[in-house]
């Protein structure tokens, strides 16, 4: 009887010990991340989320945020319903000063005229020059957008003010020349540009063309878009004799170095005019005017 009782107590003790060990093993993975070293090879424990950092940890509905901004939405000072901030105020003041400075350096009160009887037509940033001569209509179209070549800041020389070292901004747009004849339903179209190494040719050197023809093609008269289905002659590998004749053809119709110089001056004035207008529109937009 005593042996049976002793055996029963032993079995009960083993069962209790096994259950406790099993429970410890189950809880161990949950407790280990909280006390384990950061360099442990086990998976990283679940950390606090942004929401936890922004909350006080209480269960109440009002949770003052730890990361929340203390700045409120600025009041609206006009009837436009737009947002007004201190940054907008500083931006508007900067634009006002910038507009004044740009108007000070503005060279032309009106757009310069082209010699040779060219008529100017403006549509936003696009300009079209037209000239009629001996049964032909010659038109030149260009756009001032992206017409300012990139400039690289240079260190001012000793004794020279930084403003004196700034290069003059000149607009050198690509332009398209279209020559139309009354007896033909096709126009001869020249795609022209200003090569960077020819724009500033120096005095005393042999005069060279300050513009170049990139492509030539016949296009239907009156078409605004260049049709890729028409054959296009590239001048990259063109015989120089043929190229010279093409340049002479343009010069006979008033598109020569003098014209190219005047077109740069016109485009520069037009680009600066549109730049000032953009600044004024931007200022009015920022101030909701």
Question: What would your notes on this structure say?
Answer:
- With 289 residues, the protein is α+β, with helices and mostly antiparallel strands.
- It has six helices and seven strands; from the N terminus they run αααβββββαββαα.
- The chain has helices spanning 2-35, 50-54, 86-104, 196-199, 240-251, 257-286; strands spanning 119-123, 126-133, 136-143, 175-181, 186-193, 212-220, 232-234.
- It has a seven-stranded antiparallel sheet with strand order 1-2-3-4-5-6-7, with no helix packed on it.
- Strand 1 and strand 2 form a beta hairpin.
- It is elongated.
- Its main location: membrane.
- It comes from Lepisosteus oculatus (Spotted gar).
- It is a peripheral membrane protein.
- One of its GO terms (biological process) is apoptotic process.
- Pfam families: MAM33.
């Amino acid at each position: 009887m005593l042996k049976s009782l002793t055996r029963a107590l032993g079995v009960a003790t083993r069962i209790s010990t096994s259950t406790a060990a099993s429970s410890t093993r189950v809880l161990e993975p949950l407790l280990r991340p909280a006390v384990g070293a950061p360099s442990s090879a086990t998976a990283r424990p679940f950390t606090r989320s942004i929401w936890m950092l922004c909350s006080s940890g209480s269960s109440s509905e009002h949770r003052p945020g730890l990361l929340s901004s203390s700045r409120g939405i600025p009041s609206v000072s006009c009837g436009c319903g737009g947002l007004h901030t201190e940054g907008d105020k500083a931006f508007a003041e900067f634009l006002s000063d910038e507009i004044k400075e740009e108007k000070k350096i503005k060279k032309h009160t009106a757009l310069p005229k082209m010699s040779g009887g060219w008529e100017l037509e403006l549509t936003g940033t696009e300009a079209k020059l037209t000239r009629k001569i001996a049964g032909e209509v010659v038109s030149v179209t260009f756009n001032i957008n992206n017409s300012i070549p990139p400039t690289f800041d240079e260190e001012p020389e000793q004794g020279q003010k930084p403003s004196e070292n700034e290069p003059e901004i000149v607009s050198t747009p690509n332009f398209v020349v279209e020559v139309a004849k009354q007896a033909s339903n096709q126009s001869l179209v020249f795609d022209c540009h200003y090569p960077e190494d020819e724009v500033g040719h120096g005095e005393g050197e042999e005069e060279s063309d300050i513009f170049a023809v990139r492509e030539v093609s016949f296009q239907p008269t009156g078409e605004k878009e260049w049709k890729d289905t028409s054959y296009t002659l590239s001048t990259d590998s063109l015989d120089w004799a043929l190229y010279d004749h093409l340049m002479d053809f343009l010069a006979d119709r008033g598109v020569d170095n003098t014209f190219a110089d005047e077109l740069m001056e016109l485009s520069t004035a037009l680009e600066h005019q549109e730049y000032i207008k953009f600044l004024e529109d931007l200022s009015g937009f920022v101030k909701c005017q």
